[in-house]
Amino acid sequence: MTNKFKYFIGNWKMYGNLSSFKIIQNIEKYIKKNQNKFKKIKVIFCVPSTLIYPFFLKFKKSKISIGGQNCHFSKNPGPFTGSLNAQMAKNVGAKYLILGHSENRKEGENNHLINKKIENALCENLNVIFCFGETIEEKKRARTFQVIKKQINECIKAKFDLNKILFAYEPVWSIGSGKTPSINDLSKVIKFIKKYINKKYKFKKFKILYGGSVNAKNIENFSKINEIDGFLIGGASLSQKKFIDIINNYYKKPKWKL
Ligand code: PGA
């Protein structure tokens, strides 16, 4: 197995309350107890806005980072009822922001807005978990590569610091559905993304994640794709057992490699 850091990122979506920190606390304890095995992992939980600050306080001395799940496109404060911007997320302790998630795209967010959000988050020195991926219709029409290319092109400017961006490939049809791409298909897409970003931005060291119905069972298969630097985990990140099983099973010895 590779010597590189692997990311395990929980996306709690609109779940959790003040006492849910216990889930993260138990995960933290487990990782600490097994630190020899888990020397090379980064664990991040992107929680609802209301939980960023209390969880930041709880985990600021630990190796676990807390992040948010979106921000407004405006850099400055303003009359945007119900919103928060990147600066506000940072101010309450977020180190990461998920941006471009398909659940937000479904509500009207487009590449132009996502581009502005990423720019603002980077300005605040936040790390960005940039989500992109094709819908089932696009997959059926064999448009996956074109769609991904367009999303990356329109959201990521050449001047952005790619060290601060985690590229999260999340096929829309896979999120919350229990369906996942075959290892062959996923491997092809990951290779395509790598090649495309290397060429377009002349940058090789960026990180690439997979997200969409990751669980303790399918992670063993995903672990065979060495190019994947980590995982964005929705549903399963709300359970300490499921999350710990995912990490453990990732590090099981692979039976074969692609
Ligand atoms: P899921 O969500 O793991 O529940 O499919 C992933 C995500 O939305 O990032």
Give structural notes.
- It contains ten helices and eight strands.
- By secondary structure, the protein is of the alpha/beta class.
- The chain has one domain: TIM Barrel (Alpha-Beta Barrel).
- An eight-stranded parallel barrel has the order 1-2-3-4-5-6-7-8.
- Strand 6 (165-169), helix 8 and strand 7 (207-211) form a beta-alpha-beta unit.
- Helix 1 packs parallel to helix 10 and helix 7 packs parallel to helix 8 (183-201).
- The relative contact order is 0.15.
- The site of 2-phosphoglycolic acid has 13 residues, from strand 8.
Entry summary:
By secondary structure, this protein is an alpha/beta fold. The chain has helices at about 20-35, 50-60, 85-90, 100-105, 110-125, 135-140, 145-155, 185-200, 220, 240-250; strands spanning about 5-10, 40-45, 65-70, 95-100, 125-130, 165-170, 205-210, 230-235. Helix content is about 40%, strand content about 15%.
Largest beta-sheet details: 8 strands, parallel, barrel
List the total number of helices: 10
Average pLDDT for all residues: 96
Parts with pLDDT < 50 across at least 5 consecutive residues: none
Descriptive keywords:
TIM Barrel; alpha/beta; 258 residues; binds 2-phosphoglycolic acid; 8-stranded parallel beta barrel
Topology:
Layout: E1 6-11, H1 21-33, E2 41-46, H2 49-59, E3 65-68, H3 86-91, E4 96-99, H4 102-105, H5 111-123, E5 127-132, H6 136-140, H7 144-155, E6 165-169, H8 183-201, E7 207-211, H9 219-222, E8 230-233, H10 240-250
Parallel strand pairs: 1-2, 1-8, 2-3, 3-4, 4-5, 5-6, 6-7, 7-8
Helix pairs in contact: 1-10, 7-8
The structure holds 2-phosphoglycolic acid.
2-phosphoglycolic acid (PGA) binds at residues 11, 170, 175-176, 211-214, 232-236.
